[in-house]
Every structure is written in structure tokens, then in C-alpha cells.
Design a protein that fits this description.
The chain has 139 residues and is mainly α. The chain contains six helices and three strands; from the N terminus they run ααααββαβα. α1 packs across α2 (47-61) and α1 crosses α6 (124-138).
Length: 139
């Protein structure tokens, strides 16, 4: 399944609303929500916060974001076995992640990386991409 391409311009267009939504969900200042901060490491988000943010973004943009969409998109054309082995992301999987999460600074990708640690990479920009992709998918 081809990933829907997103331009920087499209990201910039939705970012103010995404930042506002995340600041509300995380109880932080909107100034702290920069495109490239780690939601978990820099803004103390927890997995329950991700559900809350997705729900709020769906409402704000009137879109649907399927659960697990980021990892599914990142996996791209790789099978599950090509992407991860016993809970650890493969080298091929890591390359896919780096390509898909191009907004994440390269030093944040660790090898070996546990699948459970993938959300540590997510940034506000990651969610901007999801929003734009959902908008395009909805037509």
C-alpha cells in the first residue's frame, strides 16, 4: 500500500491546530509543542495521551485516523516479519522507520529498537502528517 505523500506546506498548514490540540491534551503550553520534539521524552506524553490526541485531532479536522496507523504506514510494503522479529525492529524495518519518520532527528533511532519504543519517536509533525494523509484519503 502506497503511503500518501505530504508536503512541508501541508504540514505547516495543519500544525497550528495540531499544536493547540496537543497542548490541550497534554496540559502544556502551546509554545512547548514544536514540530520536532518527542511527545514522550520532551512533553511527557503517555500511551493514553496518544489516544486522546488522535481522538481530539479526529474531531478538530473531522477525519478518521485508524489505530496503529503510524506504525502501519512506517512498515510500508514490508511484511510484519520483515519489519520486526520477536518485538525488535529489523534493520530493514529501521530503514523504513527513518524514511517514514523523516522529521525525527537521526540520533533518536537506536539499534536495536523495540517495537514498543517506536512511539518514543513520535513528534507533533508525525501527527501533522497523519492528519494530512487522513484528509487526502477522505478526499
Amino acid at each position: 500500500m502506497a503511503t500518501i505523500q505530504v508536503t512541508q506546506e501541508e504540514i505547516d498548514k495543519v500544525f497550528p491546530v495540531v499544536a493547540e490540540t496537543m497542548a490541550d491534551a497534554l496540559g502544556c503550553d502551546v509554545e512547548d509543542v514544536k514540530p520536532d520534539v518527542s511527545l514522550i521524552e520532551d512533553l511527557d506524553a503517555e500511551s493514553i495521551d496518544f489516544l486522546d490526541m488522535v481522538f481530539r485531532l479526529e474531531r478538530a479536522f473531522k477525519i478518521k485516523i485508524p489505530r496503529g496507523k503510524i506504525v502501519e504506514n512506517a512498515r510500508g510494503d514490508l511484511t510484519e516479519a520483515e519489519f520486526e522479529q520477536k518485538g525488535t525492529v529489523t534493520e530493514g524495518g529501521l530503514a523504513q522507520l527513518k524514511a517514514y519518520l523523516s522529521e525525527v532527528p537521526p540520533e533518536r533511532f537506536r539499534s536495536p529498537m523495540k517495537v514498543a519504543d517506536i512511539p518514543r519517536l513520535f513528534t507533533p509533525e508525525t501527527f501533522c502528517k497523519l492528519v494530512v494523509q487522513a484528509q487526502k484519503a477522505a478526499g
